[in-house]
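Q: My labmate handed me this sequence with no annotations at all. I'd like to see what the chain might look like in three dimensions before we decide whether it's worth expressing. Could you predict it?
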Amino acid sequence: MAYNLKSESEVKEYINNLGIEYRFGCYSEKKPEVCHLLADFLESIKKDYEKAGKVYKNNCDEYKYGRSCLKYATYNLLGRGSKKSDFKIAYDYFEKGCNLEEPDSCLNQGLLLITKNDCIELKQDVLRGMELLEKACAGKNANACYYLSGMYISGVKKADVVSNPGSSKIKEDEYEISKNMTKAFQFALEGCNLGNMYSCANLSQMYAKGDGVDKDEKLAEKYKNMALDMQKDVQSNKTLTFQQGLQS
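A: Here is what I predict for the chain of 248 residues:
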């Protein structure tokens, strides 16, 4: 049946039929990608986060659909569809998603390991966290590339140095990850090429100062303009695209 969606009744009928189609494709045909769409439908149209969470979880556990692992992990991180957040479950499902080659899951798993938080029953492991960020960056996650670039720009101090810095200058062996402007440039370039405006801004500064790369004023200006153009695009294109999956 064709719809022109000009009347409220036709819109409602279309939405109801869409839900029926997704349920059939998920439960009868057992298609993981349709199960994920069903969960997105429950989340965005029905606003039933509890049911959406159950579908995401089942699609991750039963059908090994990485994007659903990511969504269920995010639900637990935010406490969506439940009474409270559970960082341990969130971490476990980010790990499942990462193992299923979902770059966004690798990013979030890595950030949980890098971040020191006494409320999380998870031991901080910066080196393992950076490995996961590198996997996410290699999987074309622009944010992961940006975070890696930033960590190499400033370096990552060891936990005991952060908590007891003293007054003396921090030595090289007191860094968990040493400053490395060459690597910082490489990851910033990758992040910029993937559309991260902050990576482009960092590239501009690096070219302007000659940090990690030969100084080049023209390229500094080029990447500065790229960052500004991306910023304008972000401000003018804040839209939600259903069926691509809601971003949490």
